[in-house]
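ok trying this again, last paste got cut off
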Amino acid sequence: MRAGPDSARRRVAGSLAALLCLGAAAAAPAAAKPRLHPAAAAPGEAARTARYWTAARMRATPPLDAPRGAGLLASASYATVSEPTVPPHSVNGRLFVRQGKNRGFCSATAIDTPSRRLVLTAGHCVNSGPSERPGDGVWSSFLEFVPAYSGSTAPFGAFVAHRRQVFAPRQWVMFGNPGFDVGAVLTTPNAEGVRVADAVGGGAAIALDRSRHEQFQTFGYPGKTRWMQGCESPYVGDDASTYRIPGPPTIAIRCHWAPGASGGGWLIDEGTAIDGLTSYGKARDRRHTFSPYFSRRNVGHLVAGL
C-alpha cells in the first residue's frame, strides 16, 4: 500500500499543481485518450513471463510498494481467509510484476466481463505514476495473476498478461491523481486454456456510481503473508485532501492494510461486485485505508471494451 496523496503531492508538485489550476478539464482533456498502455513487447513475452515466475521466486518476492530495506508494517485489521478457493473469495489473488529493476506483488481481482480475461488492481501496480515530471512513471512488465494464491500454490493456475494489454487512466499515469489509481490487465488463459473469470467461478461485477455508504468485504495479501487476508468495514468518510484534486474524492474504510494489499478488491453485494480497491494509507493513520470512488469517470472509462 503506497503513501497517500500528501506524499504524492510533494513528489510531483508540478503535476498536481497543474491539475489544481486547470480544474477537471486538465484531468481528462477532451482530445486525450482516457487510458494509456505501454508499448508492445517482443514475441514470446507470455512464455518468458511464465518461466520467470517460478514458485521459489514468488515466495521470495516482496510487496511492490514495501519500503526498500525497511520492515513491513504489522496490523491487526485483517484475518486469514479460511477457504480462499470458494466464491466470493476465489476472485481475489496476487499479481506478480516487475517494475523497473524491482520485482514485487500486489493484490487484484478477477472481473466478470464478456472477455472473461479482465483483472482489476491499483494503478500504481501497473504504472508507478510520475516522480519528477508528468508521465515519467515506469510501466510494469512480467505480469502474472494467481487467483486464490494460497501458501505457495496456484489452485486455479496462473494467468499472464502481455504488456500491450495493461492499462491505467491518463490522470494516474500523467499526474498521479489518487482518484484514478486503478489498473486494468487483460490476461491470457491458464495452462489448461481456461480464462480467468471462468476459472474462479465467474468473477466480480464492477459497480459504478453507487452510494458511498456501502458495507465492504476487502481482501489482499499484506506483508510477508502468503495467505489471503480479509477485513470488513463500512464506508467511514472521504479523504478531505482529495477535495481539491479534480475527479471523485477518494473513500475510506476502517481497515488498516499493509504493503502488498495494494489493488485488493473491496467487494459489496455479498461479494458479487467490486466497488473499490486498496490504493493508499497515511503514515500517521493506523486505522484507515483509502480507495478511488468507482464511477464512470474513472473506472468506467478505464475498462470500457475490455
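PB: full thing came through this time. Residues 7-16, 20-31, 69-75 have pLDDT under 50 and may be disordered.
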